[in-house]
Specification:
mainly alpha, two-stranded antiparallel sheet
Length: 475
């Protein structure tokens, strides 16, 4: 009787893994399907939240947060997910974040009173952990699905952005959609600021390159190229140097891997790596120059329209140089001010301020004229919010991600080229995160944080022994 019960439980536990992406399992809606749909919704709503009649944090509280708890409970029961080191580190970061709230406010109930807790739970339990629900043969399918969804919604956002600036008559007929999308101060703003608008089209370009590599059919590749071009134009018009250079770095990394694969066995290894490095730098340079040329052509067209007294002519886009590179456009002044605040309040180094009070506590130390409360560096924001312990946990996770990314891209595993290019997303996300506060200490979702988590989770999952073994068996 006991053996029969154990066999039944084992069968029930393992049976869903044979139909991972089916809508129903054992007569009920699949929890894996719910996880994938929830993450797709998270991506779509975060990209399009300015155009939707609902606040994205409301959806976070009533959809993504509870869905993530349900999803993680199933992962714990079916997969024993907490056995993985990276999961333990991320859970430790979450627990420490909760402790900083208790240590600062002496009120545990305040943890669940803010979006931060819901966002972090959805980050750890859903975005980062999703790949662990699938066998190796299904991870690529899920990853490609998430990439396609992102590319579709980002392309839609970019099309609407170009309508807003180039077809103002049409845009005026739907003010609820196009309001707030314009070139103001010489830069395209889709979100609250051009620097926060740029990551979405940048991610569209990167994922289009990834999908182009993964796809074999010519007509689909043509679609991905068109989508990349559509995303590239708004990215250039934001004049966000961090996003443009970050995208160039990601594409350069992809070019490095593609050429490395193409030259394998044909030229000596040292020469091969040298040629790949030159190609990567060339792609970065060409991408940045292409963005500058796009701005120049845009401004020339606007000048011509203005000469014809066209009332619909948009504002010219500024051409930004690197004359302020030494101070990272004033960011070093912000970081020095934050350091002064930390030295005057050393208890912050011990246990932070709590995630939602960090900007307010450090506001008096920001330089005059700077955007008060925006740290412009995710690690600086993490140090203020969580103290030294939180910063060390974040750095540990970044180191683990970096090692896994290098192993996936340059290791001897048999993954296809597109999969080995996945860490390019991580390269872009981290480069953005070092110039903006997109990661770790954020109070709500953003596309950089979401795709950092997705790419990191899939990178770890694809390096697990069963994933490598199944890839080899497929070949």
């Amino acid at each position: 009787m006991g053996k029969h019960m154990r066999d039944t439980l084992t069968k029930t536990t393992r049976e869903p893994r044979e139909h991972l992406l089916s809508i129903r399992e054992n007569g009920v809606l699949s929890w894996r399907t719910l996880g994938v749909v929830s993450l797709m919704g998270c991506i779509a709503i975060e990209v399009l939240f300015n155009l939707l009649p609902i606040d994205h944090n409301t959806v976070l509280l009533y959809w993504f947060f509870p869905a993530s708890l349900l999803f993680f409970s199933q992962l714990y029961f079916h997969e024993g997910i907490t056995k993985h080191v990276e999961i333990k580190v991320f859970l430790a970061f979450l627990v420490w974040g909760v402790l900083t709230v208790v240590l600062n406010f002496r009120r545990l109930h305040m943890v669940e009173s803010y979006w931060w807790f819901a966002c972090m739970c959805a980050s750890v339990f859903l975005c980062f952990s999703l790949p662990y629900a699938f066998d190796a043969k299904d991870t690529k399918r899920v990853l490609n699905l998430l990439a396609v969804v992102t590319l579709v919604v980002v392309t839609l956002l970019c099309v609407l952005s170009m309508i807003a600036i180039y077809a103002k008559d049409l845009a005026a007929k739907a003010p609820s959609i196009f309001e707030g999308i314009d070139i103001a101060g010489g830069r395209l703003a889709i979100d609250s600021h051009p620097n926060r608008s740029a990551p979405a089209p940048a991610m569209g370009v990167i994922l289009a390159a990834y999908l182009f590599t993964a796809e074999k059919k010519v007509w689909r590749r043509v679609i991905f190229v068109i989508a990349a071009l559509v995303c590239f134009v708004p990215l250039a018009l934001t004049a966000s140097r961090t996003a443009i250079l970050g995208t160039g770095l990601a594409l350069g990394y992809m070019a490095f891997l593609a050429l490395k694969s193409a030259l394998k066995g044909r030229v000596p290894q040292v020469l091969r790596y040298a040629l790949c490095a030159v190609a990567a730098v060339a792609v970065l340079f060409a991408f940045y120059q292409g963005a500058e040329e796009t701005v120049r052509l845009n401004n020339a067209a606007l000048e011509q329209a203005a000469a014809q007294t066209d009332p619909q002519a948009a504002e010219a886009v500024v051409e930004r140089t690197f004359s302020d590179a030494e101070s990272f456009n004033g960011r070093t002044g912000i970081w020095r001010g934050v350091w002064n605040g930390l030295t005057e309040n050393p208890q912050i180094l011990a246990y932070g301020t709590g995630p939602w009070m960090s900007s307010e506590v450090m506001a008096p130390y920001f330089p005059d004229g700077s955007p008060v409360g925006i740290f412009h560096n995710s690690l600086v924001g993490t140090l203020v919010a969580y103290g030294v312990v939180g910063l060390l946990l974040a750095l540990l996770l970044l180191v683990l991600v970096a090692v896994a990314a290098l192993r996936l891209s340059l290791g001897r595993h048999s993954h296809e080229l597109a999969i080995r290019m996945l860490p390019a997303v991580l390269l872009f996300a981290v480069s953005e995160g070092m110039m903006e506060d997109f990661m770790f200490a954020n109070l709500s979702f953003n596309i950089v944080w979401i795709w950092f988590l997705i790419a990191a989770g899939f990178t770890f999952r694809l390096l697990k022994p069963d994933a490598i073994q199944e890839r080899s068996e497929e070949k």
